[in-house]
User: What shape does this take?
Amino acid sequence: MDNQTIPLDAETKALEMPEDHRDELRLWLRLLTCSTLIEGEVRRRLRDRFDVTLPRFDLMAQLDKTPEGMTLSDLSKRMMVSNGNLTSLVDRLAASGHIERRVSAIDRRAQIVKLTPAGRMEFRAIAAEHEAWVAEIFGGLSQREQKDLMRLLAKTKLSARNAIMGETQ
Amino acid sequence: MDNQTIPLDAETKALEMPEDHRDELRLWLRLLTCSTLIEGEVRRRLRDRFDVTLPRFDLMAQLDKTPEGMTLSDLSKRMMVSNGNLTSLVDRLAASGHIERRVSAIDRRAQIVKLTPAGRMEFRAIAAEHEAWVAEIFGGLSQREQKDLMRLLAKTKLSARNAIMGETQ
Assistant: This one.
């Protein structure tokens, strides 16, 4: 017997849909679709045009923002890669001369990594292209629409944070 | 010598910023932040409350939409997991009685999977909770704001698709 061939009874329906939240669900799926679509395209262009992975680009972007360098543990907090992957990423960027490592003066167990001048120059060339791609991707929205979207996403971020906080209290 | 201590010269600046697209970049990063935040929370609640992974939930959601069942290859096209992961996911869902498999009448090399009545019932109970979480997460936005966000994300999706199409032509 197939569930689909008999109409759901009222009780099952009530259990399934205590209130109708289909609009919010559609909103979330659309947000996710946009994010997945754009991230996929950025990832593809980074790979095809610069032979750079997204985690490598993200790591260099983090270091570009902190010219004095960062400890590995701070880096790992800001990036969404595992510690093992981060270490091998750092090893490869050091081997290719993009970053340099030194022992922290404050904590000799901690390693500080920073971009080399060559690493910084290469990152910024890629970052400029990356920024142009993103502008192209959002190019179908007017200035006004971009501004509205920015404001609504700020609200969404706050609303999501509140839901998460309420949850973990 | 630290790059940060000397101002960038005009040429470097021009290379770096042919046009200023910082607004679009901020927009993209905010969209990505929202998406990552919400996905992480949904993933956490599915795990904590139902001991269900997001790929498992997504697979059941795909099957719930197609009561007649789907071939493994159609399933893999709609989901963002590798074929190997999909096969092991399907094996586990079959072992726990949530789905059933049969050979396709059209193509005997193809396997068709569908939810069992018990699998469907369990999925729908989780899906109702999931929908309520999403409504809570977007709860800080008024109906009007949700509608506006929906419309702007539709434009974003279209704009991203156009950028991707232009790229691959």
In short: Chain B touches chain A through 70 residues (CB under 8 Å).
